[in-house]
Structure formats: C-alpha cells, structure tokens
C-alpha cells in the first residue's frame, strides 16, 4: 500500500463547476498508477492544482472522467482529505495500520463514506475504491491516500505529481506478473524472452494477454520490445482466461501463487512487471496549509510503529560489581547490543537495614526473530528474571523518509 498527498492545496479549490462544461471536448486526464503490496504514498499535485485554478474546464473534466460528481460552487477546503480503501482486502488493513499508530478512524457505520480521526482534527477521511483514491488524488479531490502500489502505478500512470511518502506498510504483499499455461505449447517456455520468440506470434495472430492492468501491461510489453501482443481485459478471475481459450497468457497480481497453480499456470523469468514496493519517489510540491504537518505526523507515527513492530523490549537482572563490568559481559554477546547499546541501571536492594547494589537491570531492544537466541545469551552471562514486552513505537531522532520527502518537494 501507499500513502499519497497533493500539494499546494491552498491554491487548489475542489474541482467543480457548471454542467455545461462537461460537453467540452478536451481529453480526460490520466487515470492510472502501480503498486503491488503495501506502500503508503502521499500524492502532491502543484502542477495539477494550478491547472485547476487556472482552468475550470479542466477541473470539471477531471471530476467527470474520474467519476466524482462536480460540485455546484468552487469551495476552498480547510480540511485535509485522506482517502482510505472503502472495501476489498486492504480496507480493514489500512484502518488497523492507523489504529496501530494510535490514529483511530471513527466511522459511524460501514456505509458512511466520511469519517474523522480525532487525533488529527484538521483531517477528514473519505472511503473510496482504491482506483478512485488515485483518480481523486490526481484531480485534487483528495490530499492523501493509502493504496497498493499496483493501483497507484496503474491509475497514476507515472504522474510526477504523485509522491509516495511511505512505500512499505507491511501489508497487501503481492507482485504483478505475467503467467502462462504450464501445458501444451508453453510446456517448455521458461522466460519472457522464450515466450516472445515463439514462432506462433505474428501480426495476424498476436500473443493474447488478459489483464486488468491496461496501462501497465502494454507499457511493460513495449519496454521489453515484444511486438505482437493483443490485450483483453476483465474485472477478475483472469486465471480462467487461458483454459477458456480467450487468452494465451495473463498479467495479474500474484501473492501466494495458489490461484496460478490451481489453474495450471506458471510465472516466467523476466515476467515480473512490478515488485512489491518498487514504485519510485515522484516529484511534486505540497503546499496546502497544515498538510505537511499532518503528513509529518502520520509519517512519524507510521515509521515509529513499523520499526517497533519487529522488536521486543527485554529487561533482565544481572549480578555484578559495576555497570561497566555488566556492560562488558552483555556486549560480549552478539545479540545483546540493542538499538544503540544496553541501558544498565543499578538495582537498589535493602538488606538488614542497609542499601546495597548487587544487581543491575539491563534494558535492550531485541528483534522478534532473535528473541530466544538473545534470552540464551543473557542467561549465558548471568542474566535472570527476563521480562519481555511488545514495543508500540520507536521514534528515531529523525525520519529519513521525511527528509526524502522534503528533498523531493524541493523544500
Ligand atoms: N492476492 C493478493 N494478495 C495480496 N494483496 C493483494 C492481492 N490481490 C490484490 N492485492 C492488493 O490489494 C489491493 C486491493 O485488492 P482487492 O482485490 O481488494 O481490490 P481490487 O482487485 O482493486 O478490486 P476488486 O477485486 O474488488 O475488483 C490490490 O490493489 C493489491 O495492491
Ligand atoms: O497468488 P494468490 O494468493 O492466489 O492471489 C492472487 C489472486 O488474488 C487476486 O484476486 P482476487 O482474490 O482479488 O479476486 P479477483 O480476481 O476477483 O479480483 C489476484 O487478482 C489473483 O487472482
Ligand atoms: Mg481483486
């Protein structure tokens, strides 16, 4: 999934205006963009916003082409709008992710498409289908969004105004790939190159590919120099197309690979169109009042949460003569250095009316995967009473993605 944010919203009224303008013959704006898996991206659209300001016709066309109803009056927005998936496999995950960041989306009922996050009073949440989130970011009707990288790439079509703020949200993991039957004339075909070189394809009888990715599919084939290709499209269950005789190959999302296997299809070398989180940063400017602060806060919470997600806090007691001596023993073990080094504090015990220091408490962060190894190492150097608790946040001094975003925005 990805988070997106538009820029310069202060200068960007919501698209709207009179119905007669919809008759204008100007071409519709780009509609698609890619992103398998989870990425969080903010879209910025200074150029597009400026276009809205200067051309009301363009604004209305964006609204119409993107399926949003044109408003009757141009209204400047004070609230920042965050688009979340209204349904599908990412809907609950997106809300859960925000919840893990202590940002609680208050939706009165599931059919109400607007909601609030009390922790972000200047932000309103709008629930939309993922592709409409990208379209509405492009049109300026949304400022931020969480979508899959495949959706972002397909419907954003490489628009430079889309900025990915966070590209790896740890959910919706999948990739976009070409698959062919593992039987018949394709039995021995193992790569895209071999597929392209099959003598069967010609101008009259091209390789037929079924896909829902009608922007990324042709782009990928063109970039790979594959000439004789024809695309067909459907809304789902594409894996049935080869067996039905409708297509030779498919281009679709793959996660576990089960659907391919169950339909006697296989992936091929060089056939991955989009890897999880492979979408690059895009330049744009973000200038709506308060928007950058909101982006900063969401980003910080996200980064801190995602970083903490893989770690435990481990506390243990250790007998010793001084903090330094205990530190030496702890640091002699490879998995006990924590994020920056162990915190070691004296434990004050009262015995026979006397306060003495016989023990030291050590506190470290340990990767979840290395927990048991770390406990063994702690015991090996005299650790006892080991307490393990989950971590909610790890706030670093700075968020590298924030610096990267500012650089992208030339701020
Ligand atoms: N099998 C999968 N495993 C993991 N993530 C997936 C998978 N399929 C899709 N996704 C991710 O989840 C996003 C939403 O997929 P979902 O199937 O919920 O909606 P959709 O395919 O856009 O719409 P619909 O299937 O309702 O027509 C996709 O854009 C992709 O990023
Ligand atoms: O590799 P897998 O884990 O088997 O997942 C891949 C399948 O999941 C998605 O379909 P979805 O479930 O969204 O159904 P759809 O085709 O109706 O969109 C995708 O389009 C593949 O068909
Ligand atoms: Mg689907």
TrEMBL record:
What Gene Ontology cellular-component terms does the record carry? chloroplast
Name the needed cofactors.
Answer: Mg(2+)
Which Enzyme Commission number(s) are listed? Answer: 2.4.2.17
Instruction: Give the catalysed reaction(s), semicolon-separated.
Output: 1-(5-phospho-beta-D-ribosyl)-ATP + diphosphate = 5-phospho-alpha-D-ribose 1-diphosphate + ATP
Domain Histidine biosynthesis HisG C-terminal residue range list = 308-392
Which Gene Ontology biological process is one annotated for this entry?
L-histidine biosynthetic process
| Entry annotated with the keyword Nucleus | no
Q: What is its main location?
A: plastid
Family matches, as InterPro entries:
ATP_PRibTrfase_cat, ATP_PRibTrfase_CS, ATP_PRibTrfase_HisG, HisG_C, N-reg_PII-like_a/b, N-reg_PII/ATP_PRibTrfase_C
Q: Which residues are in the ATP phosphoribosyltransferase catalytic domain?
A: 129-303
The keyword DNA-binding is assigned to this record? no
* PROSITE patterns for this protein: ATP_P_PHORIBOSYLTR (PS01316)
Pathway terms, separated by semicolons: Amino-acid biosynthesis; L-histidine biosynthesis; L-histidine from 5-phospho-alpha-D-ribose 1-diphosphate: step 1/9
Q: Name one GO molecular function term.
A: ATP phosphoribosyltransferase activity
Question: What family, per the record?
Answer: Belongs to the ATP phosphoribosyltransferase family. Long subfamily.
Outline what the protein does. Answer: Catalyzes the condensation of ATP and 5-phosphoribose 1-diphosphate to form N'-(5'-phosphoribosyl)-ATP (PR-ATP).
Q: What is this protein called?
A: ATP phosphoribosyltransferase
The protein's organism comes out as Brassica carinata (Ethiopian mustard)
């Amino acid at each position: 999934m990805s988070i997106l944010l538009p820029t310069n919203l202060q200068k960007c009224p919501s698209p709207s205006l009179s119905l007669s303008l919809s008759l204008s013959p100007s071409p519709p704006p780009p509609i698609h963009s890619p992103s398998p898996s989870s990425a969080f991206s903010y879209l910025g659209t200074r150029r597009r916003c400026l276009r809205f300001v200067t051309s009301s016709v363009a604004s209305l066309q964006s609204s119409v082409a993107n399926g949003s109803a044109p408003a009757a009056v141009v209204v400047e927005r004070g609230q920042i709008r965050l688009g979340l998936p209204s349904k599908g496999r990412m809907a609950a995950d997106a809300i859960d992710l925000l919840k893990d960041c202590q940002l609680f989306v208050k939706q009165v009922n599931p059919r109400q498409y607007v909601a609030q996050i009390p922790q972000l009073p200047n932000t309103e949440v709008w629930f939309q289908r993922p592709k409409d989130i990208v379209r509405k970011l492009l049109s300026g009707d949304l400022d931020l969004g969480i979508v899959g990288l495949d959706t972002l790439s397909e419907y954003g079509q490489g628009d430079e105004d889309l900025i990915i703020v966070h590209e790896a949200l740890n959910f919706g993991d999948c990739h976009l790939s070409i698959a062919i039957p593992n039987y018949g004339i394709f039995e021995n075909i193992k790569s895209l190159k071999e597929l392209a070189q099959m003598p069967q394809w010609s101008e009259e009888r091209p390789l037929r590919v079924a896909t829902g990715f009608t922007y990324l599919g042709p782009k990928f084939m063109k970039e790979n120099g594959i000439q004789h290709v024809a695309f067909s499209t459907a809304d789902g269950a594409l894996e049935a197309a080869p067996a039905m005789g409708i297509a030779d190959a498919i281009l679709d999302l793959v996660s576990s690979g089960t659907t391919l296997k169950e339909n006697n299809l296989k992936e091929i070398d060089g056939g991955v169109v989009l890897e999880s989180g492979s979408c690059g940063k895009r330049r744009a400017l973000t200038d709506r009042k308060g928007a950058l602060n909101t982006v900063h806060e969401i980003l910080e919470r996200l980064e801190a949460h995602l970083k903490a997600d893989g770690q435990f806090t481990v506390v243990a007691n250790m007998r010793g003569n001084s903090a330094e001596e205990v530190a030496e023993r702890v640091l002699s073990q490879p998995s006990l250095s924590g994020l920056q080094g162990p915190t070691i504090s004296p434990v004050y015990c009262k015995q026979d009316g006397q306060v003495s220091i016989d023990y030291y408490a050590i506190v470290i962060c340990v990767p979840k995967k290395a927990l048991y190894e770390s406990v063994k190492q702690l015991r090996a150097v005299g650790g006892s009473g080991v307490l393990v608790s989950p971590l909610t946040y790890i706030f670093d001094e700075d968020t590298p993605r924030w610096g990267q975003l500012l650089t992208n925005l030339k701020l």
